[in-house]
Specification:
alpha/beta; 6-stranded mixed β-sheet; 36 helices; 26 strands; glycosyltransferase; membrane; transmembrane; glycoprotein
């Protein structure tokens, strides 16, 4: 692409300039030729030698450097799941020098740091900017600060200048001149326009005063030392601000239009209307001649919503000064924005708390700013498609494997990317989050998606809305790669503050995703949306985007202007003044220069290439020397929040400090002997990997339980589906196949699929325990969906009931009044010692609605009858293990199996229920993306049974009261209590709270609360919720996958809060071996439970519908008071649960 639009390339076959001018003299051409060949040859030789030397040195260092050298310097330590390396402390303090702290000299020293923490802390959250402010800019800023201090509000010059406002015209300008910025439009526009006005003030030696509007002083710190930039509230013209427009009498454009401008007189003040709707006369502000008149006026009042900096470069009186201030022309807002805009402590708290809780531990941070201008409720599918297309094609985010869940052995997870989405709508982040949770990435990268707020619509009038908006702009600026939306000033601010060249999502037309979806910005500068197209000298229209190389049309708005970086090889043209650039130059003038510059351009390219080729090998040597082979992936220079908050990385998996390192690794993976080796690990990754994600259990399985499990496995292998004993036993179920079963035949208990997933899991565990006690083979109904959720627990056989099982068609008809129902037969007195011998099967109704006759199942006498029946078909949704402990013939056996009585489900659940690879992928992806690097994980399972709609205020209060009173989560600081210490003065804990609920309401409340307010302990709190299905959808496979994954994730937490009556919570606490805090069920929604929660006696579930019957005395009895290890439940007074004897 031609980098200078004011020349044509000369003909390559002629030395004569275009238009018939004289040919290039041979005396001038020959030296250039020889210079070209000699210089290029010398450059090639020199470059080759350096490259060879550097490469040889690099290879020497690589092959002689010992990777285990203990003295080598390590990179940033990262907490990585399943990484066996030992990391000491990830904290890095930024104490190199004041250069980074002062942003290369942009900032002045001497401020009270406590009053504006962001001023000197912002550098700790970003990589050092590659763009250094020029010495001339720094001198201009120091000079301005002196001017502002001398002329600012309250000074004598300011007071004298105020008196001029009482006059229409003045005789002299006075000591100081001012430009007043009027607060106007949305926050992004205000920031950009204020930066523009400040630059204008620098150029014209004026003092900038800022109309505070509704919230400016709540959002930004004072940028200038020892003097406020805020316009005093008693400013005489303040009351006129709201009414200022194009028709105001002192509007410069209006005066020009009506020919009332008198160049011989100096006005006391002038209004400049530079809003997007300004007219041609208003745009004369950008002409040199008009600047001469305007420059005499002591008070300028400016209302604008534009970033008009690009057009300042086109004013001849300013371009040289701007060149000296900004040699890198695309850095204007980057430098001025970081100089001016320091969030107040309240806003900075929003920034740092969110960064530390959700972004700080990621290897790479991706920002996606979504602004949709279409009318209607989102999210829009075409916008989602556009985001996905852009981030994948530009390699910002990896593609996902939507075809198949690939079985892989666990390796160290690759890069962890945190995606920060900002949008008024939560739909886009939810879609991204779900996609990267439900499917693995093709690259193996871990993707976490976060969105701070979703306000629904722009609410510029609200302080907290604007505070969050500023915080989100700032957070986006801290990312490593950024995607922004076309036309959005929100994104412009973020990219400028961060020094980022974003990928811009082009504006869709007709609700269709554009192709390409996005494009890389030429620079980090904002776009001037409403520039003038006028040649002030020629007094005619002109394309101002083609006058100089560094002012170009915007990528996202074809008529807009922006400052863009162009690699200028023609240095003699770099400083062309505006008039020279505009003036027509003859091709005769350009032809000779072109040939000279082409030669030096080639030489310049060769020189740059040589430097590049030399530097790369040298950097390789440095990396080897200082980092070694094993540390190339230890960090990428990204600034970590741990640099300032000293969060210790959570050492997970094999490096978990809580793992028993003196155990044999084989024993650890086999859960103390519960599991057996020999399974195909790739077919069920969770079986031998689960121990990597949680602490070692304090509860050890007894040797007797282990021997019983091994004996059961042999029984199941001998009698399971497909074996001869199974075939013989099933034959008894078919018509005309009656009589005594074979002496060595096998007996079975068939669990019928029933109720929700939590109930199914705890009832299967109960049925399995009963099977072990009665030497029966457990077979479970469930089909393909069941196998999609759970792996096979028994080696070389299956526990799934065959689809062609003889009685399958009768299952739906089995009920309490079925002829073969045990309770019904007792009721009709059809069962006794002799009659049972002729029965091939019995139906056991042990669901929550069972009657007194059904409950006789728990009597010794009935058990002696049932043991003779080959097939028992069981329907239950209960964890009935506690009542098995009250059957005399089982009591001793159970005591040997479970010396710690409250661990029945803990051991059996971990033995039986291994998530399938589909579900295990959901577990591990979520854990690695959101929980792995926390110092502590808190589980919060919320299930409200009597909630009609929305979020219950009483339940919310109950949750907060519980977690704070029990010190699971810290309380919030009251206003004024927060101490403004340097963050590195003490260590912080990063606590990740995993919320599971059918609604997002409670999650949003907690997330917002811990984002908006600091904690008294200064701990960092991140709130996460995997899904929010709205209502229970047991019939849906993905719903059940996610439910099972969430139960398992809750079981991986360190502390757990569950809801009363919920089997979902029971499963989580049992698998995790956790004594949860139980949120008591509220009897009504008008009063708060006191206490709001209580600690569970044991990890075991509650039996919700136990029998109250003394089988021996044949009378009612409180079965919760018979033996010390069977007690009433904490959450259901009539329920029973197993507890330890102590």
């Amino acid at each position: 692409m031609d980098q200078n639009p004011y020349r044509r390339k000369p003909s390559p076959i002629s030395t004569t300039t275009t238009g018939g001018s004289n040919p290039l003299p041979t005396s001038e051409l020959l030296p250039m030729k020889f210079l070209s060949f000699g210089t290029l040859k010398l450059t090639r030789t020199f470059t080759t030698c350096l490259i060879l030397f550097s490469v040889l040195l690099a290879f020497s260092m690589i092959f002689h450097h010992h990777p285990s050298d203990p003295n080598r310097v390590m990179g940033f330590a990262e907490a990585r799941v399943l990484d066996g390396r030992d990391y000491s402390n990830a904290t890095t303090t930024n104490d190199s020098n004041d250069s980074d702290r002062l942003l290369g000299g942009l900032l002045a020293t001497g401020f009270d740091e406590a009053t504006c923490l962001s001023r000197y802390q912002s550098s700790l959250y970003r990589k050092p900017s590659p763009y250094k402010p020029s010495p001339y800019l720094l001198s201009k800023l120091r000079s301005y600060e002196t001017l502002h201090k001398r002329c600012g509000p309250g000074t004598e010059p300011y007071k004298k200048a105020l008196t001029q406002l009482d006059q229409d015209h003045i005789d002299n300008n006075g000591e100081c001149k001012y430009v007043v910025w009027v607060s106007f439009s949305g926050l992004g526009n205000r920031i950009l326009s204020l930066a523009s006005v400040f630059l204008y003030a620098l150029l014209t030696d004026r003092v900038l005063l800022v109309d505070r509007g509704k919230d400016m002083e709540d959002l930004f710190c004072e940028p200038f030392p020892d003097m406020s930039w805020l316009l005093p509230l008693d400013f005489p013209l303040m009351s006129q601000f709201d009414g200022l427009n194009q028709d105001s009498s002192r509007c410069y454009g209006h005066m020009l239009k009506n020919h009332v401008v008198d160049n011989d007189k100096t006005l006391s003040h002038l209004y400049l209307h530079l809003v997007h709707d300004y007219g041609d006369h208003d745009k004369m502000f950008f002409c040199q001649g008009d600047q001469t008149f305007i420059g005499k006026v002591p008070w300028l009042v400016v209302k604008t919503d534009n970033y008009f900096v690009p057009s300042l470069w086109l004013i001849p009186g300013f371009d040289e000064e701007l060149d000296k201030m900004f040699p890198q022309k695309e850095t204007v807002f980057h430098h001025l924005g970081r100089y001016l805009f320091h969030p107040t402590n309240q806003v900075w708290g929003l920034v740092t708390r969110y960064y530390e809780a959700y972004l700080s531990q990621a290897d790479e941070k991706i920002g996606i700013q979504v602004r949709v201008f279409d009318v209607g409720a989102g999210p829009f599918q075409h916008v989602m498609d556009q985001i996905s297309s852009c981030t994948r094609k530009e390699k910002l985010l990896p593609e996902v494997d939507t075809v198949i869940e690939r079985s892989r052995r666990v390796t160290t997870p690759k890069k962890h990317k945190a995606v920060l989405v900002t949008s008024l709508n939560s739909g886009y982040s939810e879609n991204l989050k779900s996609m990267y949770w439900e499917y693995p990435t093709l690259t193996g990268e871990v993707i976490g998606v976060h969105q701070p707020s979703q306000e629904g619509y722009q609410q510029t009038e609200k302080k907290m809305h604007n505070g969050k908006a500023l915080a989100e702009m700032y957070l986006l600026s801290m990312t490593d790669s950024l995607v922004t939306s076309a036309w959005s000033t929100f994104g412009y601010v973020a990219q400028g503050l961060g020094g980022l060249k974003p990928w811009i999502l082009y504006k869709p037309e007709n609700r269709t995703a554009p192709d390409p979806a996005c494009g890389r910005a030429m620079s980090m500068e904002p776009c001037f949306h409403a520039p003038p197209f006028y040649d002030c000298k020629a007094k005619t229209g002109v394309d101002t985007g083609k006058l100089v190389p560094h002012v170009r049309h915007c990528e996202d708005m074809s008529w807009g202007l922006k400052l863009g970086f162009l690699m200028d090889l023609y240095r003699s043209r770099r400083r062309l003044s505006i008039p020279k650039a505009i003036d027509t130059q003859t091709e005769e003038q350009l032809g000779v220069q072109e040939k000279r510059f082409r030669l030096f351009g080639v030489m310049r390219i060769t020189e740059i290439l040589a430097y590049f080729m030399v530097i790369v090998p040298v950097l390789l040597v440095i990396m080897v020397i200082f980092f070694g082979h094993d540390s190339y992936d230890q960090g990428n220079g990204f600034a970590k929040a741990s640099r300032i908050i000293q969060i210790k990385p959570n050492v997970t998996s094999e490096d978990d400090s809580t793992l028993q390192r003196d155990q044999n690794p084989k024993d650890v993976s086999l859960l103390g002997g519960l599991l057996v080796p020999g399974f195909n690990k790739d077919m069920c990754l969770s079986r031998y990997q689960s121990h990597l994600y949680r602490k070692a259990s304090p509860y050890k399985p007894s040797s007797y339980l282990i021997s019983k499990l091994r004996a059961y496995e042999e029984l199941h292998k001998r009698c399971g589906p497909g074996t001869k004993p199974y075939t013989n036993a099933e034959r008894l179920l078919k018509p005309k196949q009656t009589g005594d079963p074979e002496p060595e035949g096998c007996k079975y208990v068939v669990w019928m699929e029933f109720s929700g997933l939590g109930n199914r899991i705890i009832s299967i565990a109960s049925a399995f325990l009963y099977a072990m006690l009665t030497d029966r083979v457990l077979l479970v109904e469930g089909g393909e969906q069941f196998s999609d959720l759970f792996c096979e627990p028994f080696l070389d056989t299956t526990w799934l009931l065959p689809k062609d099982f003889t009685l399958t068609n009768q299952f739906t008809g089995f009920a309490q009044h079925s002829p073969r129902c045990h309770g019904e037969m007792l009721k009709r007195k059809l069962i006794n010692g002799s009659s049972v011998l002729s029965l091939s099967h019995l139906y056991l109704h042990l669901a929550h609605d069972y009657n007194d006759q059904d409950k006789m199942f728990f009597c010794e006498e009935d058990q002696s009858l049932l043991k003779n029946v080959p097939w028992l078909i069981m329907r239950t949704n209960n964890f009935f293990a506690p009542s098995l402990f009250l059957i005399p013939s089982f009591e001793e056996e159970l005591g040997l199996m479970f010396p710690e009585k409250g661990t029945v489900f803990h051991h059996l659940g971990r033995y039986l229920f291994h998530p399938s690879n589909h579900v295990w992928g959901l577990v591990t992806r979520y854990y690695n993306a959101y929980l792995a690097k926390a110092d502590e994980r808190i589980g919060l399972q919320i299930r409200v049974f009597d909630e009609k709609s929305g979020v219950s205020p009483q339940v919310t209060k109950q949750i907060l009261s519980c977690v704070q009173n029990e010190e699971l989560l810290p309380k919030l600081s009251k206003p004024g209590e927060q101490q403004h210490k340097q963050p590195s003065e003490e260590e912080f804990k990063l606590k990740a709270v995993l919320v599971t609920s059918l609604t997002t309401g409670y999650y949003e409340i907690l997330k917002t609360m811990y984002w908006e307010n600091p904690t008294v302990t200064r701990d960092v709190i991140g709130i996460h919720q995997p899904s929010h299905e709205g209502h229970q959808q047991t019939e849906k496979l993905m719903h059940n996958r996610k439910a099972w994954a969430e139960m398992y994730l809750l079981s991986l937490t360190d502390k757990l809060v569950i809801s009363a009556w919920s089997t979902f919570g029971y499963v989580a606490q049992g698998l995790g071996g956790l004594r949860a805090w139980i949120l008591y069920k509220q009897e009504n929604q008008t009063s708060l439970m006191n206490p709001p929660c209580g600690r569970a006696m044991s990890p075991d579930p509650c039996f919700h519908a136990p029998p109250y019957y003394d089988c021996k005395a044949k009378k009612g009895i409180d079965t919760g008071s018979v033996v010390p290890h069977v007690r009433h439940c904490e959450d259901i007074s009539w329920g029973l649960k197993l507890v330890d004897n102590s």
